[in-house]
Specification:
With 602 residues, this protein is α+β, with helices and mostly antiparallel strands. The protein contains 15 helices and 27 strands. A six-stranded mixed sheet has the order 1-7-10-11-9-8, with helices on one face. A five-stranded antiparallel sheet has the order 2-5-6-4-3, with helices on one face. α3 (149-167) runs antiparallel to α4 (197-214) and α10 packs antiparallel against α12 (465-481).
């Protein structure tokens, strides 16, 4: 174990209008005597320090590994104090990357501390480890005038430790308390984001015990290790308005669910402070990123109570734009159904456009259905439950909701799955609504995903509730056979999934369409019924397709006689497009404001 290397007494310089200047606290050159470092290790170390300095401009925490061999690999990370603004964090880390080589020359491992940040590098993997030693402390010169201040401070800091490790699960907490006699005290506890909640608690408890021994009788002090720190002061060392704004943001996030449940939905959608969103996503870190879609990147965030949320961030280069953003806000905010994803709030600050949703831990239906390993876990009972849920969600949209919404982009990647694998329809950026007795609309702006689009929409821009019925029929076939419609054209059958399914139905061989992975769980009559329903839904003429209310009845009936489906005339989607974009999440080709210049019948 490396011994404690210093105790430093420093007077804190503070100002009511600006943050204190970062100051050097100490370092630990772990191997002490200079070493003969290889040229490769030195080069990798310089590259690592440069990378950490660059990261500090956008994030308060980062870790980097450079090299791929045992003797040349270097691991490094930094963390800035959570109350520090981005510019101060970058200045502190940049200073640390420069001075650590001067204070610890020719060392394979070293740590350097400043009042605002810590930086460390090593030739051994240091990530995820809880380190109580080496540790450091610094204290101000003013003694506590109240003999009981130490005990009061200890009690308050323990409450912050609980908040950071048990309640919020966000690795930091700060605030103020009344000492008495008109005096206030301020405190911050913080851990490295890579360690567990239990490890964070262990580290902070050890540092609090250290502070009790060294600094309890002082009005300001700070203690820390490579993985955690505690700061205590008799002045507001971070801007109070910023703290209150952050707290307001977290309160707003906690209240969103309650608001949406209790609201008549005539109110505006709650807006969430950007600061709170940045905090919950660790400033949009790569570790928080769930994927990338046509709208832009999607990040996972965490509420103060530990619940997950998903955040869509409109990309400046997105093929979709402000209109789709507003569609999401307008539609999902006013629609509530157990089979629709819930939009919890939005943010439009500093040129950012963000939408906050409930988090779906099992990702999309497409990620299960079109992945050979994941599909093994989707037995017929689960698939049937998913089919029923999607149908109920569509019925609500097009018939039961007050808005009468046409989704226009129903596909496997836009059906999300909750903890219990229940489906929730998502992504309303392309949705439209009908008014009054209107049953059909026309658009020159064709939007959607090829293969799922109804013929009248793809060819003439005509859409109605029957357009979504067509998409549902396609999705139903995909669920049954486990194949993506867009990839079926390349199969040995040489025909579209729709035509192939109809031919099997016509020949009385429907079960040949079934996913072989359902062999041990399928119910033959149920499979046959669902295939029949799907073929009714994908008929060329919209008038011939059933309504979603009829689909619900057919799915639930074992005795109902179904009409004969007409043969699909051609495959929709094998077309020449002026603009085609793809999603990294779904791998589906999506059409955004395209002109249909040619359609090839099959």
């Amino acid at each position: 174990m490396i011994p404690i290397i210093f105790f430093i007494a420093i007077s804190f310089i503070r100002s009511g209008t600006s943050q204190e200047e970062p100051y050097y606290v100490g370092d630990d050159c772990q191997n002490k005597s200079p070493q003969a470092l290889t040229a490769s290790y030195k080069a990798n170390l310089n590259q690592l320090l440069s990378g950490l300095s660059n990261d500090a401009s956008i994030s308060k925490y980062s870790k980097i590994t450079i090299g791929n061999t045992t003797n040349t690999t270097v691991y490094g990370r930094y963390s800035c104090r959570d109350d520090v603004a981005g510019s101060f964090c970058q200045f502190c880390v940049t200073t640390a990357t420069r001075e650590v080589l001067q204070r610890c020359p020719n060392q394979s491992s070293a740590i350097i501390w400043y009042s605002y940040c810590m930086l460390r590098y090593s030739n051994e993997n240091l990530f995820g480890k809880v380190e109580i030693s080496p540790s450091w402390s610094s204290e101000g010169t003013k003694k506590a005038s109240d003999p009981a201040e130490g005990k009061k401070a200890e009690s308050y800091i323990r409450s912050l430790i609980r908040e950071a490790t048990e309640e919020t699960k966000r690795w930091s907490a700060w605030g103020k308390f009344n000492l008495g006699g008109g005096m206030k005290r301020y405190a911050l506890v913080q851990c490295s984001e890579e360690i567990s909640n239990k490890g964070c608690q262990q580290c902070l408890e050890a540092m609090l015990n250290k502070a009790i021994q060294c600094c309890e009788q002082k009005q300001d002090w700070q203690v820390g290790t490579p993985t955690c720190l505690i700061k205590y002061a008799n002045y507001m060392f971070c801007h109070e308005a910023r703290v209150e704004k952050m707290k307001h943001g977290w309160r707003a996030l906690l209240q969103l669910m309650t608001f949406l449940r209790a609201s008549s939905l005539n109110k505006d959608l709650p807006t969430i402070p950007l600061l709170a969103i940045q905090q919950s996503t660790r400033h949009f870190s790569e570790d928080s990123k769930l994927g990338e879609g046509g709208f832009g990147p999607v990040y996972k965030g965490t509420l103060p109570d530990g619940k997950g949320i998903a955040m869509k961030r409109l990309s400046q280069t997105s093929g979709q734009g402000s209109q789709e953003f507003m569609n999401e806000v307008i539609f999902i905010a006013k629609l509530q159904h157990r089979n629709l994803v819930s939009l919890l709030g939005c943010c439009m600050e500093e040129n950012e456009k963000l939408l906050v949703y409930e988090y779906m831990p099992n990702s999309s239906l497409g990620s299960h259905l079109f992945n050979e390993e994941n599909r093994k876990n989707l037995d017929w009972k689960q698939r049937r439950n998913i089919i029923n849920g999607i149908a109920k969600g569509l019925l609500y949209l097009c018939e039961d909701s007050r808005l009468r919404v046409i989704h226009r982009d129903l596909k496997a990647s836009n059906v999300l799955l909750d903890y219990e694998m229940n489906p929730k329809i998502s992504d309303f950026g392309m949705a439209r609504t009908f008014e009054g007795a209107q049953n059909q609309q026309n658009t020159r702006r064709i939007m959607g995903t090829y293969g799922y689009m109804a013929p009248e929409y793809a060819m003439e821009g005509l859409f109605s509730v029957k357009s979504d019925v067509f998409s549902f029929g396609v999705l139903l076939l995909e669920i049954i056979c486990g194949n993506r419609i867009s990839g079926f054209y390349l199969s040995e059958h040489g025909q579209s999934l729709l035509c192939y399914a109809w031919n099997l139905w016509y020949e009385g061989k429907c079960l040949e369409l079934m996913d072989p992975m359902l062999e041990n769980s399928y119910i033959a009559n149920d499979i046959l019924k669902c295939i029949h329903i799907s073929l009714l839904c994908v008929q060329e003429d919209a008038v011939d397709r059933p309504t979603m209310s009829t689909v619900i009845v057919m799915l639930a009936s074992d005795t109902m006689t179904f009409p004969r489906p007409n043969r699909p005339a051609f495959s929709v989607g094998r077309m020449v497009l002026e603009d085609l974009s793809t999603s990294n999440i779904s791998k589906d080709a999506s059409i955004n404001m395209v002109t249909l210049s040619h359609i090839k019948p099959r």
